[in-house]
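Hi F.,

I've been meaning to write this up properly since the lab meeting, where we talked about keeping a consistent format for the predictions we share between groups. The idea is simple: the sequence comes first, exactly as it goes in, then the structure tokens exactly as they come out, then a line or two of notes. No screenshots and no reformatting. I'm using this chain as the first example so we have something concrete to point to.
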Amino acid sequence: MDPNLDRFDSRRSTVRADRGMVATSQPLAAQAGLSTLRDGGNAFDAAVATAAALNVVEPTSTGLGGDVFALYRTADGDVGAMRSCGGAPEDATIDAVRNALEEADPEIRSSYYPASRGYATDEGESDEGIKMPFLGPHTVTVPGSARGWEATVSELGRLTLPDVLEPAIHYATEGYPVSEVIASHWAGADRLFTDDHARAAYLFDDEAPDVGQRVRLPELGDSLATIAREGADAVYEGEIADEIVSEIRGKGGFMRHDDLASFEPEFVDPVSTTYNGSEIYELPPNNQGLIALEALNIAEEIGAGEHDYDSPERVHAFAEATKLAFVDGHRYITDPAYEQIPPLGSKSYAHERAGEIGPSPIQDPAVGVPGSNAEDSDTVLLTVADEEGNLVSYINSRFAGFGSGLVAGDTGIALQNRGASFSLDPDHPNSLEPGKRPFHTLIPAIGEFPEQGWAAFGVMGGYMQPQGHVQVVSNLVDYGMTPQEALDAPRWRYREDGTLGIEERLPGATKLARKGHDVRVLPPVMFGGAQFVGWPDGLAGATEPRKDGSAVGY
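Output, unedited:
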């Protein structure tokens, strides 16, 4: 990646408008959402239009072959959530996957275990034997995006699915120029894609596109047009389903038609807590939203936000609160249909845990889920608000970049590798089981801030997401920052290996090291992008240039 993309000094101000606002990671997609609002859609219609457009103009981070989630507040005051993520195929047992990996051609098997992910050998061997791969057919779980989009529009929107897919279909069939950040992410695809279908769909003369190159994705455009014409059932029961099953099973995976056809999105109750007078809503398990809530509760308990903003004591307090929340979350959070999960988001639970925080770092190695592959994964998030008072935070992802490395036949749909978060150890909290949904990093957020009103927000990037939520909330609540200032402020993040990553703009690195933290200065791209819309009496929007963000209103 070009190092110049990781250096910025934001001079943006908070964007303000009074009829509609869209914030996301790619300008063309933001315009798709805004045009949907102008054409009579509400915030939910615009959210799907933006997400679908991102599938085309930022295909390096999201796609139809992934999952989608929402947190929202309607104009009527209802607070809700949608979870649209599939599970493992019914035939995908630990023994079946392990046997398939052991019998696979060694060269093919080695391609499932990129060295950049820290596997012991190119074939994923360890002292415990074969690990869950990061790429390949065994990492593909049932994709939730298409039925999630359809449910969003039918249950909460006022336009039709063909209406909201039109901008994405236009970009895919007519083409668009590739921006710098997207081109930099696309650059490694020629090494990722070893499969002919993937190379045909996403490479051009066998190479990733250059900055400014106009690209068309006609196969993806045809699939989007099919969904617009036939509905999301085309992905789960129709011709696209046939291509998905054929692709995965042809590569040795276990997906069947019944796995796809039986999938349905869910509208679920969010989980929430209060933080210094504001109420923050997150997604319940199998997502990691409880980690953000527990961290906020512990931080409130120890008065983390009472420290001076530029002091190392502030970073230490919040980072230690977050560390404990990670330890608990990664010990317990999984698909709730398979395990009972303690009340990690409660004040009483945080009160017990807060007593462990002192002036020195807690030495607990269990910060992350070993083998979950979720530390630095990236995604896209978008936030939308309309003049009626509807407000939504919407997140759509294939997990890592182009996902599993597989594209379903000639559909142009790159299939997610979310199943890489499973473990082949039956004693692991996220052990692979048929139908089980993996631990999910994706967490959109909304909040009610008494001094300002309601807001939808989120921070992208694997385990950065709950840490980013904590920092954005604290910046707004404890330090009185504007939305744009709250997103621009330099961040820290606890790493799975126990180190404390900080941006070089963050003061106090030496003092944090003296406290006992193993401090690493990392480029801004490691701290996720972020989006924000909200506040009454005129809408406010914010985004920040750690990615390629755009906040637009009218």
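Notes:
DSSP finds 19 helices and 19 strands in the chain.
The CA atoms of residues 93 and 456 lie 38 Å apart.

If this format works for you, I'll send the rest the same way.

G.
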